[in-house]
Amino acid sequence: MSTIQHYAAPRSLEEAADLLRQGNVTVLAGGTDLMPQSKAGKLKFQPVLMNIRNVEGLRGLTETGGVLRIGATTTITDLYDSDLVKSRLAALWQACDHFASDQIRNAGTIGGNICNASPAGDTLVPLLVLNARVVLAAKPNGALTQRVVPLREFFVGPGKVRREPSELVAAVEIDMPPPGFVSAFFKFGTRPALDISTISIGFGAVYEGGKLRDVRVAFGAVAPTPIRAPHVEAALEGKPLNEETIVAACDAAGQDARPISDVRASDWYRREMVRNMLERMLNNVRNG
Known about the structure:
With about 290 residues, the chain is α+β, with helices and mostly antiparallel strands. The protein has helices at about 15-20, 35-40, 75-80, 85-90, 90-95, 100-105, 110-115, 125-130, 150-155, 230-235, 245-255, 265-285; strands at about 5-10, 25-30, 50, 60-65, 65-70, 135-140, 145-150, 155, 160, 170-175, 180-190, 200-210, 210-220, 225-230. The strands form four sheets. It has a five-stranded antiparallel sheet with strand order 4-5-10-6-7. Strands 11-12-13-14 form a four-stranded antiparallel sheet. The chain has a three-stranded parallel sheet with strand order 1-3-2, covered by helices on one side.
């Protein structure tokens, strides 16, 4: 049963932070995760339901000094429709292309997807590849402050993040990739555009002269949180992208992926899918 006693719709980040400081607040943006979870009994509403969709400055993309700032209430459709995301952040754009249905994309937000912290969250894997940072806003002493947490440190478990109850995710920041940077995203599921992923892979690197540098690889749905794959990255860093390197990287994937068996797939199947799809992705990069 709902315990909501008050509905708030702040217009400014200051006002939203004030409400959070008072405590007992449930934050609502798109509601695409919040509402199903509440109906399933997995989440209990706090006395105050705060809708942040109209908070000024929380929606949209801005690039300043080589840093892209994505407001927390920016929708998946906003990202998909962005020429900048499509041309410079291919892995993120591809993830948006495989994100649920049009209706969910129109409502679901980047901040909500991050805070939901699903091990299979579609945008989380490419954001890890892009070394994204989470910007958190709060008013601990009456003045608005912000702190920045690397996304790879933000997740602590399924549905759990390093966000204090008094903090609001205000934005995601990404340093724009350098020239020669290529990235890609792969998601496997029965119906990839609608189902929760069985596994997902993100890849990014500067590819020049047949060699890779600044390699970033991330996996989804193979651990309690979305993860970077340091053993795979080490197997690729500075190496020529030939058959030997690709085999070594796929072998290393077994050291990074730690899947479980559930209703969507067995742990063995997930490991095989990671290996096979990583091989396909790397060959696609090698072949242009």
